[in-house]
């Protein structure tokens, strides 16, 4: 039985890497308006929602064989894909209705939508005319949403053999979907970097912006800095921020026999070094964790912190600005949520200032880092 299970997982994993795809991004310069008001944020949001809804509807016409071919997988979980589609449709309907509240200020992309049937109707016929003010965005936007949708469907297709941020596994998990409209939370994985490094620049930048984020640290990296600098330096480093854990080292915690020790050791170290900044949250590397881990986290007084907007800043194909463009497009689409960057990537030095500048007048807000663990 164990051999058969191993072969099954191996086949799924082999399918997962059989057709690697580059992460989706969208050049925001193709959008002809700056987001200089909440109403203009809504205009762009309505366009992204309708474009994604159109891509979602097109994907539903594919049979299982065609979907396997499109996703580059040999085995897919059709039930998980269908469940994801249903959740997406519900979020799109909610988000479009929120985005329509400013239609009296700017009616661009305002169509009659008051229920799921009318949203699907508008999504099915959504198109940008050749003489439209927004025509330069039309094809890049269509391509982005198809590729981004494929990213999401692919993760659902691999459930439950390969867990990810695409679905919650229990009550001990949070992903930011219950946050209020226009509220976003910044999170940063895999630090701290060694001095001098991006973590130091980033925490200083956030303090200057009066914004807090959650830094999910690796226990071994934190221990190295503690040994070199001492606790007071680390307390100064994370002043005004929150610190969660990502385990002792960056590796999947779904099939690692020492996963519990990895989390418990890291949490104990953070609680010892920066007790005032510690939040009892675990960010699983690669989003992978065990389906039966809920009891462990409950006993530890911890929750699993996932995300809904992935900057994909680990991808070599994206530079910092392209990563920021991806994040902004997904902020317009989902309208709230948890954003995942890596403070081990120098790209964030470009991505975050660009993002702050692009959204400074758009009426959105940055959630306090303590809020996620309270939800």
From TrEMBL:
GO molecular function, one term: hydrolase activity
Record's signal peptide: 1-18
Record domain NodB homology: where: 178-301
Highest taxon above the source species: Bacteria
Name of protein: Polysaccharide deacetylase family protein
PANTHER family per the UniProt record, alphabetical: CHITIN DEACETYLASE 1-RELATED, GLYCOSYL TRANSFERASE-RELATED
Enzyme Commission number: 3.-.-.-
Pfam family, one: Polysacc_deac_1
UniProt keyword annotations, A-Z: Hydrolase, Metal-binding, Signal
Family annotation (InterPro entries): Glyco_hydro/deAcase_b/a-brl, NODB_dom, Polysacc_deacetylase_ArnD
Class of enzymatic activity (EC top level): hydrolase
């Amino acid at each position: 039985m164990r051999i058969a299970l191993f072969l099954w997982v191996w086949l799924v994993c082999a399918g997962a890497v059989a057709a690697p795809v580059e992460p989706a991004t969208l050049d925001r310069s193709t959008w002809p308006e700056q987001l200089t008001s909440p109403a203009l944020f809504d205009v762009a949001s309505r366009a992204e929602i309708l474009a994604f809804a159109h891509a979602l509807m097109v994907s539903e016409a594919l049979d299982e064989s065609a979907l396997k071919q499109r996703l580059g997988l040999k085995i897919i979980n059709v039930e998980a894909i269908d469940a994801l589609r249903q959740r997406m449709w519900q979020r799109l309907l909610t988000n479009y209705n929120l985005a329509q509240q400013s239609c009296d200020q700017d009616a661009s992309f305002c169509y009659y939508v008051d229920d799921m049937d009318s949203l699907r109707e508008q999504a099915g016929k959504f198109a940008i005319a050749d003489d439209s003010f927004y025509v330069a965005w039309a094809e890049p936007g269509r391509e982005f949403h198809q590729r981004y949708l494929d990213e999401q469907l692919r993760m659902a297709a691999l459930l439950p053999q390969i867990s990810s941020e695409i679905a919650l596994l229990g009550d001990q998990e949070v992903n930011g979907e219950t946050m209020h409209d226009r509220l976003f939370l910044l999170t940063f994985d895999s630090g701290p970097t060694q001095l001098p490094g991006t973590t130091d620049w980033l925490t200083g930048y956030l303090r200057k912006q009066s914004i807090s984020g959650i830094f999910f640290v690796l226990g071994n990296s934190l221990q190295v800095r503690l040994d070199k600098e001492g606790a007071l330096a680390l307390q100064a480093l994370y002043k005004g921020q929150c610190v969660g854990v990502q385990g002792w080292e960056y590796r999947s915690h779904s099939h690692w026999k020492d996963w519990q020790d990895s989390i418990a050791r890291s949490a104990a170290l953070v609680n010892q070094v920066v007790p005032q900044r510690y939040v009892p949250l675990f960010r699983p590397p690669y989003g992978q964790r065990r389906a039966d881990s809920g009891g462990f986290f409950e006993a530890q007084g911890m929750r699993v912190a996932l995300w809904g907007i992935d900057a994909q800043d680990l991808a070599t194909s994206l530079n910092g600005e392209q990563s920021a463009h991806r994040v902004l497009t997904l902020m317009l689409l989902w309208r709230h949520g948890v954003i995942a960057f890596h403070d081990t990537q120098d790209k964030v030095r470009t991505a975050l200032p660009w993002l702050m500048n692009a959204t400074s007048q758009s009426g959105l807000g940055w959630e306090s880092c303590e809020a996620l663990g309270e939800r």
